[in-house]
Amino acid sequence: MPGTYIPINYLPILIILFVTTLIGLGPLLIGIIIRPKRPYPQKLTPYESGNPPIGEPRQRFSVRYYIIAMLFVVFDVEAVFLYPWAVAYGKLGLYGFVEMMIFIFILLVGYVYAWKKGALEWE
Amino acid sequence: MLPQIFFAYFAVVITVLSILVITRKNPVHSVIWMLVLFVHIAALYIFLNAEFLAAIQIIVYAGAILVLFLFVIMLLNLKKEEQERKFHGYWPLGVLAGTFFIVFFILILSKISVFPKLGPYSIQAIQSEGSIMTIGKVLYTDYILPFEIASIVLLVAIIGAVVLAKKRIE
């Protein structure tokens, strides 16, 4: 029943999370508290090796990054499905093998499609 | 008492983070709050004895999906005025969708009983065997059709991304 189970094995992870958060945020907070704050326009401009800054720092990315990211997510999810399959493989036998081959084949069709369409090429 | 305290913490923090995600002006800030939100949801999964799901929540959602969100933000990278012109004026649609989901969740909540009958996969059964082993045994035998449908959905995602992005490149 939910609400009665305490995952005691995860206590070290909780402690590590606390410690890492402290290490990450602590120096920043100490810095904010103790540093002197005397800003003026020259100090607040982005540092570009002494030159006055040119243009916007954030520019539009090429859409190619999006295709690569999308393909990464898809094959990431495929790997997620492979993991419990590999663990339970001994109990699934040939049946499990065949169904995973069908799964991989369907995704292979998508991979070949992306390849043939030139989505993996950068030029 | 301790599980209730933890659940109360996660419930409150998840709600607050969700509100933060949808109210930030800067979309990159929204994504960063969403990262914290996903980590909290993963912790909630651990408390439901769904360790594998918690790991996947971190790897896929916090790792991959958020990177995709960031890419989309960078792809758009709209100026302030354009943002206001393009993304305001959707609120009647938003209210409609919100009402729909409230009704939807009320219908779901009315079906949930507080003390449900326990299934074969109790905490002890899962822990004796391992969370991943249990998922593997059930997913690839009883839920084979949803599993194969998942591959079709992923295929649609690949083809959709390629078709949409190729039009931009050419």
Task: Please give a quick description of this structure.
The complex is a heterodimer of chains A (123) and B (170). With 123 residues, chain A is an all-alpha fold.
Number of helices of chain A: 4
- In terms of quaternary structure, the protein is heterodimer
Number of helices of chain B: 8
Gyration radius of chain A (Cα, Å) is: 25 Å
- Beta percentage of chain A is under 5%
CATH class of the domain at 63-117 in chain A: Mainly Alpha
The major β-sheet of chain B equals: none
Largest interface: A-B, 53 and 55 residues
Give the overall silhouette of chain B: globular
What is the beta-strand fraction of chain B? under 5%
Tell me the CATH topology of the largest domain in chain B.
Answer: Four Helix Bundle (Hemerythrin (Met), subunit A)
Low-confidence stretches of chain A: none
Write the layout of secondary structure elements.
The complex is a heterodimer of chains A (about 120) and B (about 170).
Chain A: H1 11-34, H2 41-44, H3 63-87, H4 89-116
Helix pairs in contact in A: 3-4
Chain B: H1 2-23, H2 27-47, H3 51-76, H4 80-87, H5 91-111, H6 123-129, H7 131-139, H8 144-169
Helix pairs in contact in B: 1-2, 2-3
Description of the structure:
- The complex is a heterodimer of chains A (123) and B (170).
- Chain A has helices at 11-34, 41-44, 63-87, 89-116.
- Chain A has a domain at 63-117: Methane Monooxygenase Hydroxylase, Chain G, domain 1 (Up-down Bundle).
- By secondary structure, chain A is mainly α.
- Chain B has helices at 2-23, 27-47, 51-76, 80-87, 91-111, 123-129, 131-139, 144-169.
- The mean pLDDT of chain B is 85.
- The termini of chain B are far apart.
- Chain B is mainly α and 170 residues long.
- At the A-B interface, helix 3 and helix 4 of A face helix 1, helix 3, helix 7 and helix 8 of B.
List keywords for this structure.
heterodimer; A: 123 residues; mainly alpha; Methane Monooxygenase Hydroxylase, Chain G, domain 1; B: 170 residues; Four Helix Bundle (Hemerythrin (Met), subunit A)
